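Technical annex, item 7. During the second reporting period the consortium partners agreed on a shared format for inverse folding records so that results from different sites could be compared directly. Each record opens with the tokenized structure and is followed by the designed sequence. A conforming record, contributed by the partner at site C, is shown below for reference.
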């Protein structure tokens, strides 16, 4: 019996193969029990494509590059039927083109001159190849198409022979409880990107080049697949940045900071803090059946039976926000308080004005709410100016 071991690590934990390529029934059943029959079938297929040596990768890299260059040449010198008319006209002199256009009843030469510029760029494109080795590239259409096909086959070959690398990286993330085949699928997306970005001239082995791409794809996929509630990756990164800043601030202060201290230190408004805490809640409790702690079998569903659960960081933080909001609103008179609360509920100024007795204009409501937010000491987050500022901050 021979265990399969490759340069990227020992992958024989879940697959054991004899010298003639037939699987070990005992180990096969073990893998099937752990990961299911689909994984066993997948590994049986993948094992037919062992990792490539450096010379093989070098040859594939050259074929892929040649295919890409041939594709550019084919697109440049063998236009589609729609473009053939423009290419023909581009070879005419400006005077000849004007004469033909006048005969056709047209007087606009600009489109033709634009095509002519493209033709000159094609000549510069070819000249760039000629300057490297002194010869022009082959422009035979059939030869170019053949090189393109070889390049595509080489790309597929490089992907197929490095799926073991994806499996090896996916195995390291089994603690995430995402099914192994889902992890492999996400890692394969990173592998495809790595193949497209691979440049054999840089001298790196393909595994060194591909590992970061695979790891990045796995991280993103793991984040999406481990939660029933989907959170965009950029928002997850925003939450991570917030938690790091929060931890640093807490260490500097020596106690858990209040919402006011967070707003002042982070330069965030109350709405952003509430949004991030909601994201934290979604991230931690993505499933109603998820365990609250590793050593606690109580699911979130059980906790939700209590309308006011306490003891979790999120409940404490929410209590602080509620307390902070109440303290601010107490500074306002009854009318201002009523209007600000309606504004935080998402009601438009025009609707708030109609609900007043007697009804007030939209401009009057804007003046009252602006003055109320000034009393609180916070810039009104519901003005058009504040909305533009938030959009500008998100686009940075």
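Designed sequence (site C submission):
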């Amino acid at each position: 019996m021979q265990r399969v071991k490759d340069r990227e690590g020992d992958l024989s934990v879940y697959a054991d193969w004899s010298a003639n390529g037939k699987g070990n029934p005992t180990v096969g059943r073990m893998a099937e029990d752990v990961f299911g029959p689909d994984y066993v079938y997948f590994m049986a297929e993948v094992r037919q494509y062992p990792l490539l040596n450096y010379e093989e990768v070098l040859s594939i890299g050259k074929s892929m590059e040649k295919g890409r260059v041939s594709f550019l040449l084919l697109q440049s010198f063998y236009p589609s039927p729609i473009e053939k008319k423009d290419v023909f006209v581009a070879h005419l002199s400006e005077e000849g083109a004007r004469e033909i256009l006048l005969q056709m009843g047209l007087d606009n030469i600009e489109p033709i001159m634009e095509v002519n510029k493209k033709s000159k760029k094609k000549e510069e494109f070819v000249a760039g190849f000629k300057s490297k080795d002194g010869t022009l590239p082959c422009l035979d259409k059939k030869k170019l198409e053949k090189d393109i096909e070889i390049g595509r086959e080489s790309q597929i070959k490089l992907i197929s022979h490095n799926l073991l690398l994806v499996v090896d990286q996916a195995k390291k993330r089994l603690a995430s409880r995402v099914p192994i085949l889902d992890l492999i699928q996400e890692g394969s997306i990173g592998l495809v990107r790595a193949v497209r970005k691979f440049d054999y001239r840089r001298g790196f082995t393909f595994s060194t080049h591909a590992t970061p791409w695979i790891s990045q794809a796995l991280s993103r996929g793991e984040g999406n697949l481990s939660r029933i509630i989907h959170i965009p990756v950029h928002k997850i990164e925003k939450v991570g940045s917030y938690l790091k800043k929060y931890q640093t601030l807490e260490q500097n202060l020596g106690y858990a900071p209040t919402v006011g201290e967070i707003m002042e230190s982070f330069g965030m408004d109350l709405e952003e803090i509430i949004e991030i805490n909601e994201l934290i809640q979604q991230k931690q409790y993505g499933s109603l059946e998820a365990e609250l702690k590793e050593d606690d079998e109580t699911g979130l569903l059980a906790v939700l039976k209590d309308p006011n659960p306490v003891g979790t960081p999120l409940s404490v933080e929410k209590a602080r926000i509620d307390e902070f909001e109440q303290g601010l609103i107490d500074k306002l008179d009854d009318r201002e308080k009523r209007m600000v609360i309606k504004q935080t509920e998402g009601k438009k100024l025009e609707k708030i004005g109609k609900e007043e007795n007697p009804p007030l204009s939209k401009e009057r409501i804007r003046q009252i709410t602006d003055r109320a937010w000034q009393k609180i000491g916070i810039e009104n987050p519901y003005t058009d100016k504040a909305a533009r500022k938030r959009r500008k901050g998100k686009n940075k």
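DSSP finds 19 helices and two strands in the chain. The chain has a mean pLDDT of 68. All partners now use this format for quarterly exchanges.
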